[in-house]
Design goal:
55% of the residues lie in helices and 16% in strands. The protein has 124 residues and is of the alpha+beta class. The chain has two domains: 42 residues, no CATH class; 67 residues, Ribosomal protein L7/L12, C-terminal domain/Adaptor protein ClpS (Ribosomal Protein L30, Chain: A, 2-Layer Sandwich), CATH 3.30.1390.10. Helix 4 packs across helix 5 and helix 4 packs antiparallel against helix 6. The radius of gyration is 33 Å and the shape is rod-shaped. The termini are far apart.
Amino acid sequence: MADLNKIVDMLSELTLLEAADLVKQLEEKWGVSAAAPVAAAAVAAGPAAEPEEEKTEFDVVLKDAGPKKIEVIKVIRQLTSLNLVEAKGMAEAADSKVLTQVGKDAAKDAKEKLEAAGAKVELA
């Protein structure tokens, strides 16, 4: 059996061009490609890219009630089960969550209604 330490020492003394030539000769002699295992090892070693999940639940956040506060309060009451005083308080407070953890369609619908009433709304 060959002394592996001697082989490693001999290979360490090769220049880059000599090592490339050695790789070509071994590929021809053994009928293999040195590139495939390197590429496979790189893929196996790298982190797997997971597809980003699409958000399915949203919060409807009232940023500003705008100039038509009464219209916005009416829409808030339609969208929620809040009474007049609670809806007014929500319209006057900054960054109020009108709806939490609702579906995409419901969030878009609520945003459209609030914006039609003059409010500035953000989906979070």
